[in-house]
Amino acid sequence: MNSFALKATALVSLLFGLVPASTAAPRSKNGILCGRPKPTNGTTSLPPTPTTTEPCVVARDAFTSQTSASPGVVPTIAASQAYECLKSVPVHKEPAIRLLDELKPFLEWQSDQAFLKDPPSDYPYPPVDIFKELETIRSNLRENKYNGELEWQEDLFKNIVGKPHNGHLAYHPDLLTVPFEWVRPWALVSVSEDGTLLPVIKVLEDAISTSERSSHVVEINGINAATFIEGRVTGSSNTQDPDAGYNTMFFSRANKVGLEARGYFESGGRERFFYPGNTTSLTFANGTRVERPNIAKFHYGPYDWTNVVDADTMHKEFCRGAYNTGSPRVAASGGKLIRRTTTPNSIYSYPKAPILLARRQDESNNIDGYPEPVLITDDHAVSGYFIDEPGFEDVAVLVILSFSSYFVSFQNTIQDFFAEAVNAGKTKLIVDLQANGGGTILQGYDTFRQIFPDIVQDGPSRWRSSSSFNALSQTFSPLCANYTPKVDYQELDHACTGVNNWRNDLNATNGRFTSYTDKFGPVTASGDSYTNYMQWDPANLVLTRQAFDTDITGYGHRKNFTRPFGGPENIVMLYDGS
Hints:
Blueprint: H1 2-16, H2 55-69, E1 76-78, H3 79-88, H4 93-107, H5 113-117, H6 130-142, H7 149-162, H8 174-177, E2 180-183, E3 188-191, E4 200-203, H9 204-207, E5 217-220, E6 223-224, H10 225-236, H11 242-248, H12 253-258, E7 279-284, E8 289-293, E9 295-298, H13 311-318, E10 329-333, E11 336-340, E12 358-360, E13 375-377, E14 382-387, E15 395-400, H14 407-423, E16 428-432, H15 441-451, H16 467-479, H17 493-496, E17 506-507, H18 516-520, E18 523-525, E19 528-530, E20 534-535, H19 542-548, E21 571-574
Helix pairs in contact: 2-3, 4-6, 6-7, 14-15
């Protein structure tokens, strides 16, 4: 028994790092970890000078010259030049096949794969079998059907990431997504010209111009404009609803702040990794046609373009996982030795501003395009407003752009805003969730319980019974037999307060599970195996006070709240599907 405990504890340490929640590395909204410094061997040497006809050398020279002349400015290159560089990299078949094989246990965790293969009749997208797609790509690699490294990585991205339309299923192939992202020359907006007519598609700058009414877009690249946008949504959107995906393609004030994009037609989202061609043309209702070049933005990150002297060294620099054997390696690069550590796990385009805490209205922290807030968090995740227009004097607006804010500030700002709204005589509430990409589910629970403190939230979910999920459950559940959650950090907190301990979580009726089988089943649905339904336990001190320095409203010291706006008839939720 002692031997088992030691081995299991070691496994927990490997999987979870066993660090206090307060020291965990922060994640960005899309789930990609923040970057780390570029590895270096402490020496610098110039690469050999190749012919400038090498497409990746053209890209390298563009990057180095622009970063030297304008440090801190994101360098760019013509879309076609970036694409030629990526296309020039030959297929590295064996590491590609190894990657596909290693993706299988990762994809086994995807809970809806059986439903994606055979979706309900009203599902708006075509069915997709992600494992069949994976096997097709593997077979194509074996039979040498791909002309280059980029081609099979595009295939992987389109079929495994694009077709499932699931924001929580993501894999970013390195050559496709690490060096560049594509940008079109226009941001578009879908807008009704008088507030009553059906929306039309316009160039953003035309829509906000104070000059006479401009013409709207009827075709993009010779295709009906709405049809073109819908096609991009079908190919790349990470939302399960086409209308939600359609919304993300256009500019809105919320998208600019919440998604950090002026609409995914111009840039951003998964669309940024689909080559848009060298140019984009717009045809307007008045017959005018305009064509402009697309560009590629370089990614900053732990990569060194000076190591690139040809297509082969392009692969070595940006596809490091193909060479990673779990220990530092030495790779030849045009006669230069480059020592590698592990594969970088991040890509990003520009430095992010630091996220601070909360701030009062009188400290001037407005969101661009939004009115003056009554209260706002410093990271702009939460803000509150009063509408004083005639007929709306009793309305308050709570804007939540993210559930990834600092928890105490998030919670206090909402609580203080509701108190000020009640004192100001506001009896109705608009909850604006446009462009909210999610985050910590418990922040959603807390918001709900501040509005309806007397209603216990309902949020059942279930996990697919994959072999690795079951192995973890069979390991952690015995290990946690005598575990008791405490506010003070303990070695087994991560393992025993996770899903794989049958004693943790609540069942579908907010009760306790009675056995391993009671929680993990398995039960069958659509020919696949799943756990029983389970829910978060907001009373768990490790999940709340230890992790967030507070209790969830409705639990612990945050009980005995009253409804600030009465019943649901006084509340409207504004939601765009993000």
